[in-house]
Design brief:
Helices cover 26% and strands 33% of the residues. It has helices at 16-35, 39-88, 98-130; strands at 7-9, 136-138, 147-148, 155-158, 163-170, 177-181, 186-190, 193-194, 201-206, 210-215, 224-230, 236-250, 259-262, 267-270, 273-276, 280-285, 291-292, 298-299, 301-303, 306-309, 318-325, 332-347, 366-370, 377-379, 382-384. The termini are far apart. The chain crosses the membrane at residues 40-58.
Length: 391
């Protein structure tokens, strides 16, 4: 589609050359109507004819002025030679009267000065009247190059979602738009055509300005720089970054599973997680108890992939939570059970119990151990069953 272009043409008196140029322009306009050429072509032809005629007239006027100046210079030199010759004849027998000769020369020099002034007037009149101040003006530029209407924005998309990259171009005309993957130098799309074999990519053209690259089911491998390019000379382009974020995921290996350790030993709990951005690891105890730190202090939480407990005791036994987070929901956690083996510990509240004859009594023994201990009573090196004996 061609723009409508308005032109203003200043008309000057036509010379023979201008008349011929106008006739040529008229013939060209007939050809334009016959072959249905764009209206702009006929306007340009008329303008070109007017300009050519004006400049041709100017050129010839200046040549004529220059020729007149050359003739005038020759006449001036001739009279100077004549004056010099007459001065040499002053001592000859045939001397022309000095007063008469001077009057003759002065008269001729005055005529030369008048001729020079007339020639200068002709030059000024030619320049002023032949050269137009402005032959024609265009109210609109014929061919504006395309330009980007907006900056290409960086995009952040969670993995598995759809990424949308938008390139806005004004005044594209007949130029082409292409999308490229910068790191691999891969052409993805040209205009409305998808070049890449990646079936997850598509191109849409909205509002005649926006060229939108869509990537469905985004993968972490899609992360990188993308370029929107216009095939002008020189090429115009802008780039945007697609960041694919991945929620955290705790790896089964090398993350610790439930652990059994003997009391007094050292133990290290491990937690590994993936995600983008890289997740942070936090350790907490399930019941909210304090966590013994490597420096001997205790805290509610500990940040780090490795939690080391020195000289584990039975009080450290319980469930520990490995929590991974990177700002991308959901946050995930894994429960690691720390089991501490320790030998039985027995205590008796009342070591001496008294009772009257024929009265029932109860002997009570408490023990603590892991694994659970087997408790029994003995009397005179003989095992008494059951454990609790009523006498």
């Amino acid at each position: 589609m061609h723009k409508q272009i308005k032109m203003k043409i200043k008309i000057f008196p036509l010379t023979a050359d201008a008349t011929a140029a106008a006739a040529t322009a008229a013939t060209a306009m007939k050809q334009q109507r016959k072959h249905k050429m764009p209206e702009i072509c006929s306007w340009l032809i008329v303008a070109a004819a007017a300009v050519s005629a004006s400049w041709l007239t100017l050129s010839r006027s200046l040549v004529a002025a220059q020729d007149a100046h050359d003739v005038d210079s020759e006449m001036h030199q001739h009279h100077l030679d004549l004056l010099h010759h007459q001065q040499q004849q002053q001592h000859s027998d045939f001397i022309i009267g000095e007063s008469e000769e001077r009057d003759h020369i002065a008269h001729h020099l005055a005529e030369m000065q008048n001729h020079e002034e007339l020639l200068e007037d002709i030059r000024e009149d030619t320049v002023v009247n032949v050269i137009p101040e402005k032959v024609f003006s265009l109210e609109h530029t014929l061919f504006d190059l395309p330009k980007f209407g907006e900056l290409l924005q960086n995009v952040t998309v969670p993995v598995g979602r759809e990424a949308v990259l938008q390139c806005v171009v004004d005044n594209l005309q007949t130029y082409k738009i292409a999308w490229l993957r910068v790191d691999t130098q891969t052409i993805l799309t040209i205009q409305n055509h998808v070049i890449t074999k990646n079936h997850r990519m598509s191109i849409t053209h909205a509002e005649k300005r926006a060229w939108i690259l869509r990537i469905r089911d985004v993968k972490e491998s899609d992360k990188g720089w993308y370029m929107c390019q216009i095939n002008t000379d020189p090429m115009k382009s802008q780039v945007g970054y697609l960041d694919v974020v991945v929620p955290p995921d705790i790896l089964d290996y090398p993350t610790s599973t439930d652990m059994v350790i003997r009391e007094g030993s050292n133990v290290t709990l491990k937690c590994a997680a993936t995600g983008s951005p890289t997740p942070t690891i936090t350790w907490r105890r399930e019941g909210g108890e304090l966590i013994p730190l490597p420096n001997g202090a205790e805290a509610i939480a500990y940040n780090g992939s490795f939690l080391t407990i020195a000289k584990v005791n039975r009080l450290n036994m319980g469930a520990y939570l490995c929590i991974a987070s990177n700002g991308i929901p959901p946050t995930v956690s894994k429960r690691v059970m720390l089991i501490v083996h320790f030998p039985p510990m027995i205590w008796i509240q009342n070591q001496l119990v008294g009772a009257a004859l024929a009265q029932n009594i109860s002997l009570e023994c408490q023990s603590e151990a892991y694994p659970k201990s087997i408790n029994y009573w003995m009397k005179n090196d003989t095992i008494i069953v059951p454990v609790m004996l009523l006498l």
